[in-house]
Amino acid sequence: MTSTVASADRYYPVIATVLTLAYLAGIVGLQLPALEPFFRPLIPVNLAASLALLLLYHTDWRPSFLFYAGLAVLTGFFVEVLGVHTGYIFGQYAYGSGLGYHLWAVPPVIGLNWLTLSYCCGTVCDRLPFPVYMKAIAAATLMVGLDIFIEPVAIRLDFWTWFGQPVPLRNYLGWWFVSLALLAVWYGLPFQKKNKLAALLLLLQFVFFVGHNLIFLLQSR
């Protein structure tokens, strides 16, 4: 795995450039009616590809990390299944067609996205000069901060719907507590929290969703 990361390092400028252009193109393509039908099916592909590239730069593949990766994907997916079918965790919502194929009314790619976001936030916040429990709190709060920008875009792009109701506070509390639980495990397990691509990918997520929100705001005026 060390040789794989070393090989990937040589192509980092290319990968970083392509990833950046892909996210910027997604902003433009999903906003233009002529291009939107071509870009919409690429949303779940982009989420899966982003995780694949992130893992390409992962440096420590010991069993504890594999356990975390599996835990994050399964927890993320099944907490959404529970949430959709009961409304207990995040409130009453349902997934639309924007994230592709559904299993038990939830797109499996959402589990991958929980891994991506917790990984990126956990890696970025590991640099903070805080005790471990404060890092977990900061990373969970960062994830919720991103979700604040995700929600309006997700509704407009048919990722999910709140049935015409405002996004409930329960959603953000649910995100925070689930994120905190995952990140407590992340920081508690003995593997290196280093990844060359994590900060850039998290920044691109913010740029993508903040960019869409700004466009929606301008369109409403």
TrEMBL record:
Transmembrane regions listed in the UniProt entry: 12-32, 38-58, 65-89, 101-120, 132-153, 173-190, 197-218
Species: Nibrella saemangeumensis
Superkingdom of the source species: Bacteria
Matches recorded under InterPro entries: CruF-like
Protein name: Carotenoid biosynthesis protein
Keyword Metal-binding in record: no
Keyword annotations from UniProtKB, A to Z: Membrane, Transmembrane, Transmembrane helix
Positions in coiled-coil regions: none
